[in-house]
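W.,

You were right to be curious about this one. When I first looked at the sequence I had no strong expectations either way, so I just let the prediction run and decided to look at it fresh. Below is the sequence, 75 residues in total, followed by the output.
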Amino acid sequence: MALMLPAQILSTIGLATAPTPQYLNANHEISIPLGIFIGLLASFVQSLGLAIQRRSHVLNSQLPEQDQKVEHRRP
C-alpha cells in the first residue's frame, strides 16, 4: 500500500471538491465590493455605538448628583 498524502485522502472521500461560495472568485479572493460593504457596515455600527454611549453620558450628567450612576455601572 502506497503512502497517501492528506490531499489525496480528502479527494478520495469527496471533501477536496466542495463547492465554493458565490462571493469567492476562482482565485479564492473576496470580491472588492463585498469588502467595501463590510468595511462601511463595520464603520456604521461603530459610529452608532459611540453615539449611543455619548447619549448615555449626556443623560447621566443631566441627572442630580445623587441619582447619577458610576460609569462602570451604566449599560
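Here's what jumped out at me. The two ends are 64 Å apart (CA to CA). And, maybe more interesting for your project: The first helix runs from residue 6 to 13.

Coffee later to discuss?

I.
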